[in-house]
Amino acid sequence: MTVQLPAVRFAKGHGTENDFVLVPDASGEFDPSPSQVSALCDRRAGIGGDGLIRAVPVAAVDEVAGSFGPDVVWFMDYRNADGSIAEMCGNGLRVFVAYLEHLGWIQLADGGTVTVGTRAGAKRVRRDGDLLAADLGPWRVVGGGPAATTGSDARVSIFGGPSVLPGLSIDVGNPHVVVALPDTDRLAAADLRTQPMVDPSPPDGTNVEIVVPLPHREVGHLAMRVFERGVGETRSCGTGAVAAVLAARVWGGSGAPDRWLVDVPGGRLRVVVPSDSRLAGEHVELAGPATIVAEGTIKVTEGSSR
Amino acid sequence: MTVQLPAVRFAKGHGTENDFVLVPDASGEFDPSPSQVSALCDRRAGIGGDGLIRAVPVAAVDEVAGSFGPDVVWFMDYRNADGSIAEMCGNGLRVFVAYLEHLGWIQLADGGTVTVGTRAGAKRVRRDGDLLAADLGPWRVVGGGPAATTGSDARVSIFGGPSVLPGLSIDVGNPHVVVALPDTDRLAAADLRTQPMVDPSPPDGTNVEIVVPLPHREVGHLAMRVFERGVGETRSCGTGAVAAVLAARVWGGSGAPDRWLVDVPGGRLRVVVPSDSRLAGEHVELAGPATIVAEGTIKVTEGSSR
Predict the structure, then answer these.
(1) Can you give the residue ranges of every domain in chain B?
(2) CA distance B67 to chain A (A)
(3) Non-local CB neighbours of A170 within 8 Å, separated by 6+ positions
(4) Closest chain A residue by Cα to residue B8
């Protein structure tokens, strides 16, 4: 049975094709149930997206009111497409800031910054020409010394690929295992319709990035595909791109660059690691395009119409 | 490179989760290029849909002006998600009429009808309570006598299933091959990520429906999944549901009912075959829900932003 609720304003936006349903909520009145979120994020019966982002003042949300400094006005209330609560989403954070600009709630000159409240703490986002650049730190190479020297601490099996590949675990607030392949043909041939097997596997699973180093001089360059835990292969993953670069810097040793380009199926991301934090750090910047493509009103439904 | 064009009005609608981007065009000014259509139908960088439907007066479209009787005011300009032209879409036709009602361009009382121009001719649609019912005839059982008596004229291989299954070819303006499975467990287990092999295959390929007969008395009942040619598995297919019922009536013989329910992953459709046209006919009615879920404005982009 479908219960029709009032129509709400929405927008659709994406960053390298990580896409989101965005809802403006200046007064803190919109608190969708998990089934309403999943209906809005349904790609066929709703608008569709990898997640839903509510743009709401920090002061209007009991859960976080008072948690941030006085300069943090806006809270990114991020929900996964299945309706569950998520702490952070790197591309979502960039699209959220593009949406605040689109609404006219903030204005960023080139180089200007805004600090946004998220469930993973306050995050700073900077406008850099056409790109939005978000600081996704802190991060760490999991396993410490041995992983950082051997370049691997996990064994990964990808369907249709070589039997077992070495992987390196990286924590960017969420867990990642990064695997290197020798060339782009093998990257294209990898079958990510099935979840890669990771051994040992973290208790709640892990995202898996497969990457190929591309020729470069001063700026590092990777091609990447990603399998997001609980979702499947996606067109992009911001924290995944950051994890891939952090792994490539371990593998590259002391000569590895600080600035990287990461080509994902949905576009190109830029990752910059401050040169004073090689193996564990407080800051890492993810930059890329973030676009609002449509806006309007949508009927919010409770439950399934199937 | 992305070229920004003016924003256009749009709506998103679906019928049993066959979903469409709808564009109102009362003056016949919107003639999107194939790349604009595919950008609008992109599920991540656009709004997303199985196709785009332009609602436009017959008189405003040179291609069809004068092709229909004076009672046919509106033309359903249907494009596939890849930007190519399509002749017809059964669920799209029902959603198109829901959109004309939503816009206030027509008003249908319960039982009221409207005749719509399509590239496959004029099609009549009737409001039946919450459902919209479209006449999708003419149709025919391909292969004539032998197929109609043996119940099969093709051999079908489905990945992960039994080696070869008998299929029956049905033409509903587009080609279908219908295959029966013995139970819903085997229906659920069929792997439709890979295109089923059909022998002999029509030169332009065929849609494939796999169906399981469910217990019934006077009203026939099928569970169905569909692989649409050039698309993959979809949540629903209107002409596919019609083809499935026409095949089931061949298999059921002279006692087969005229009224059927067809359960697809995206919901439930109803198919009614007039009882005076058993094996070849001019009319067959497809009914089901058709919903407009969102409307707004969207930036139209030319080319790819990747």
Answers:
(1) 3-137+291-302, 139-283
(2) 33
(3) A139, A140, A141, A142, A176, A177, A178, A242, A243, A246, A247
(4) A294
